[in-house]
Amino acid sequence: MTPVIAERRRKYGIVGGLGPLASADVFFKLVQALPSSTDAGHADLIFQQHPFRSAGTGSAATTERKLYIFEMIRNFEKQGVTTVVLPCFLSHTFIDELKTNTSLHIVDMVDALRQHIRKRMPGARRIGFLASDFTREKHLFERYFMPPEFEVVYPRLRDGVDCVTEAVYGRDGIKGGNLRGRPVELLHGACADLIEQGVDVIVPGMTEIALVADEIRVLSVPLVDSNQVYAQQVVSGQYDSPSSVFKVGVVGGVGPAATIDFLNKVVRNTPATRDQDHIRLIVEQNPQIPDRTENLIGDGADPTVSLYATCKRLEEGDADIIAIPCNTAHAFVERIQPHLGIPIVNMLTETVRFVRESWPGYRDIGVLATSGTISSGVYEKALQSQGLRQVTPGEALQTRVMEAIYGNNGVKAGFTTGRCQEDIAAAVEGMIAEGVEIIILGCTELPLLLPLAEFIGKNGKRAWLVDPTNVLARRCIAHATAARESARAVSTNSLTLPA
């Protein structure tokens, strides 16, 4: 199971403004519930309510309502809230949309009612709901109270009038502050119809109904105080930590074209049949990170702080892993990894492992990279750890490699044909002439010049070209897929647990 929020100090954020009177009722009952369930010193309450034009004018889950709640949750995140209280049934029709986009736990009001009925009324099967037209149309309660365990029952229309919706949203309804008279009469009629249909319990499916519960409680079947049940669940419930969507953080801009190439490879390699099957990515595009090669072989600015700052922003954005689609930047990974709370997927290590597993009979591995990458020894060290030997171009050919990357007509200047392609092809030919058959394209721009997996030299000899960014993309996909499968397994197990 996922870890349960228990010992940590809870800080509750209550979304107000959707129905001011009902929200205040839930807040009051929540305050009442706190002393009996937890130390007052172990919980904080934040009640926020902002002007919301559509709060009491209609029953539809409008875009305005969704964005209002989401912005409120974002504010709660900034205030250190751990648990969101959403006292609005209508808003529970899109609760999954909210959960997908926050790391905070949103206590589910309908689930709280289901748990309450299972525990306190184990024999109840026919559940009568006093619900709005919108929640009925969206089948909100049917999602939770499923057959054969339960049967959801709604009041029938009376002379063409939806008594429950009219009692709350009507001209003289509860939302307008009318807690006696016609709204109560309409709700009495709705309850009488439910009793006539043989329900075992009546559950208000609108938080406003709790405001007049005492006026309609004299019934032959129990009437649940939904707001009270919700408040008790918020305080005493042992609910699982929300499962967040796995996110891959990408250090972009090193260089910009290589970043786009890497993102394309992530998309192409992801087994997806629809948009939602793809991996969630956070890209921090920072082309102002100082040139890594200039620092390693010259007196260029140190990129360590810029790389670290970019990684920290990804970490703060809730990334689970970090991908850096730049070979040379990996010369700085050992400096910054100990100071991060999430792992950097080491492209060099993964590439060398891929080479070892794919071509187990080869020992000499060619590396085409910037002079900075070669001088740093990062690939040489990674290859040696797998019992392999690095082979690099001679001085003249290495000059042509650098020209293909950094020259006026090089790939970093936006060229992928002509002089730059001739220069890099010459370097590959030189390695083939030395008997090298496996070549790592150790600069993320080089696959833009050598897009094929195999190079055939002028003499007919061949060499396999290994694209580290493609290896990195596949590893990130593997991490995300494993996390998704794990979350799915946890979800399946939790569904099979006894109530």
Would you kindly provide a written description of the structure presented here, covering whatever features stand out?
The strands form 4 sheets. The protein has a 5-stranded mixed β-sheet. Strands 2-1-3-4 form a 4-stranded parallel β-sheet, sandwiched between helices. It folds into 2 domains: 10-238, Rossmann fold; 245-499, Rossmann fold (3-Layer(aba) Sandwich), CATH 3.40.50. It is α/β, with parallel strands linked by helices. Helix 4 (109-120) crosses helix 10 (226-236) and helix 18 (395-406) runs antiparallel to helix 19. It has helices spanning 20-37, 63-78, 95-100, 109-120, 133-137, 140-144, 163-169, 182-196, 213-216, 226-236, 256-269, 292-297, 304-316, 333-336, 347-358, 371-376, 378-385, 395-406, 419-433, 446-449, 468-495, and strands at residues 10-15, 43-48, 83-85, 105-107, 126-130, 151-153, 201-204, 247-252, 280-285, 321-323, 344-345, 364-368, 389-391, 438-441, 454-456, 462-466. It contains 21 helices and 16 strands.
